[in-house]
Each structure stands twice: as C-alpha cells, then as structure tokens.
Amino acid sequence: MEILTIIYLTYSFIALYFLFLFFLIYIPNRKEMFNFPNLTKEYSLSIVIPCHNEEETIGGTINSLLELDYKGLKKIIVVDDCSTDNSYKVIEAIAKKHPKVMLVKTPKNTGKASGAKNYGAKFVNTELIGFVDADSYPQKDSVNKMVGFFDDIKTGAVTSQVLVKRREKFIEKLQAIEYKIIAFSRKLLGFIDAIYVTPGPLAIYRKEVFDKVGGFDENNLTEDIEITWHIVYSGYNVKMSLPAKAHTISPDNLKDWFKQRIRWNVGGIQTINKYKKTFLKKGMLGNFILPFFLFSWFVGIFGIFILTYRFLRRIFINYFFTAYSIKAQTALLTLRDINLTPNVLVFFGIGILILSLSFTAIVLLHLRETEFKKHGFLNILSYMFVYLLAYPFLLIASIYKFLRKKRSW
Hints:
It is a single chain. The chain is of the alpha/beta class. The protein has a domain at about 45-270: Spore Coat Polysaccharide Biosynthesis Protein SpsA, Chain A, CATH 3.90.550. The protein is about 50% helix and about 15% strand. The protein has twelve helices and eight strands. The protein has helices at about 5-30, 60-65, 85-95, 115-120, 170-190, 205-210, 225-235, 255-275, 285-330, 345-365, 375-385, 390-405; strands spanning about 45-50, 75-80, 100-105, 130, 135-140, 155-165, 205, 235-250. An eight-stranded mixed beta sheet has the order 3-2-1-4-7-6-8-5, sandwiched between helices. α1 runs parallel beside α10, α8 (about 255-275) packs across α12 and α9 (about 285-330) packs across α12 (about 390-405). It is globular and about 85 Å long. The model has no long low-confidence stretch (mean pLDDT about 90).
C-alpha cells in the first residue's frame, strides 16, 4: 500500500471519528442543548472590559452590560489600556452617569488584551469575575443563563454562545455560519467535559479559581484558550450555556480576518506547547482536549495536501497522456479504458462530505435567529467549499510564524 493511501485512510478515519463522535454526543443530548440551571443563589459578580482604541464600540458594550437583568452585578470595570483615540473620554462620560461603572487606566500600554484583563482583575473582590471584549454585546438575559452553573463547586468557568453582530459583507456572513458551528460544537464537547476555550465576548470565572491559576497568561496570544486549559488542568470543569448569547464585531475584510486567525492559531500552538507533557495523561486535558486539537490540525493540514496532490497529479497525468497519444497518433480513450468500479477512498470522501453537510444543517436549524435573515444556500455552500479550504493554509502560516518566534499581537 503506497504511503499516500495510508495517509488518506488515516485522515479519513480521524475525520469520520470526530464527526461520528459529535453525532453520538448530539443524539442522546439533543433535548438538553438549551438547558441551563435555574438561579438558586445571587452570586456577586464584577465584569471587566479591556479597551484599547475602541471609541466606536465601547459605549455600546458598556450600555449592554448596564442593561443586564442579573441583580448580582456589582461593578463594571473598564480598563483603558492607554488608548490614543477618544475611548477614555467616552468611558469617562458614561462612568460619571452610572456609579456601577468604574474606569481605570493601565500605567502603560500592555499591548495585549490579557494585560488589560489582569490589571482590571486587581479591582475585583466579588465571587465571580466576568470578561467582555470592548466590541461585544451580551444579551440582556445572558448572565442569568450562565450563573446557575456555579452551584457545582467544581465549575471553574462558564462560557456563552458567541455570534456575529454585523452581517452585511460576504466575509461577515460566512463567519456568522462559522461562529454558530463553533458554538454548537463547543456545547457538545461540554457534555463530555472537554470545552477548550472560554471566548472573550462573554465568559465568567469563579474568582477563587481565576486567582488560583494566576489569571491570564500574558505571554499567550490566545489567553482565553490557555486559561481554559489551565482551569481543566487544575481539576475544575468548564461549562457552556448555549442560550446565553453575546454578539461581537467580526473582521470585515480579508486582511483583518487573516491577522485574527493567525493570532488564534499561534496562540493555540503556544498552548499546546505549554501543556504538551499532559498528552494522554492528566484527565480530560491530556486524554481528549490536547489530542482533539492535534488531530483536528492533522485533518486540516493533510487534507489540503492530499487534495492538492491528487489535483496536480491528475493534471500531469492527463497532460503527458494526451501529449503521448497525439505524438503516437493513438486514440486518447477506448471503451476498455473506462473503469466504473468505485474507489474505496471515494466512498470515504463522500461519507465525510455527507456527514459534514448534515452536521452543518443540524447546527443552523437549531441556532436560527429571528432578528437576522437566513444564511442562504449560496453562503452555506461557499462556507463549506471555499471558506474552510483556507484553514489549512492558515495553519501552515501559523506554524511558520510560531517557529520564527513572531508573537506580535
């Protein structure tokens, strides 16, 4: 058996394994996807917003938190990370009107969200600490649908469903589909205690656990992934409330999108490197989350290599075959050359495609939004067959940047 066939079969097995895993988790838990614990206690909560040059969005973010219906919210701490625009003035004007809003400024620009978050955490003395990005807008009832999970003393953090707020441009529409699939998949992983990230648009941590793990790692480009792994490593669980929604501003052009995804991936590699010694040990972190990350990347990278190889191979074979046939003045194709016997590798490819489309359909049916137009069949196809093909190239570029030790924000 040639090496390419072995790689292809391995790739197919891993891809089918994870697809079947998601279906096997979904089927028995489909009626519980939107469940969340009722409030039995009013935990005191402070929410920190890191801000750097966000004058256009910070006001809306603060106001969305002021409108939260959770009565245990004590403080909204807005950390201005030495902005050079009018962010400070916008925050200051709101803080003067609302005593609950506290404005603090870092002594010098930290250059990263994690630095501003950790600085804001110094002013928190409540049971729970939440974080919201300066361009994100939690829904009014979101926190109420998250806090109940902390009744379990082993719960260290709770995450929410992150959705795209603006969907005017084509790339924003594709990200709107992507974010839903990410959120739905994260909820499924929650049923087996394997959530691997608590995204910045809205996440809440038990303050005692947050302090125990030392807050956010300021050397990591994706502090929300690293702290989640650290929490799981420390023996706590991470939960997700799918009905708790937060809308965020996504990149509206390819340059910003590419920059964001490279940062996500480099931060992911940093996290893998930091916790590599837990591989196949140390509970769910080493036995599932870390392997899940690695195998997902394997599927992405080798998938595009296989596709590219087969495509180029077919072109070269057809070219040389045609050139030889013309030169030798022989028929290009005869009935004996036609082989209708299906290839087993083709079956694997079709199986992966059908399962992927089915999973995408299930996600979009579950996470329908009345306030937005339907995604549209063309957008879904573009996401499946164009947008996702860019990921392997992003992974390769991210690995290259990591090896070059480029850690710029």
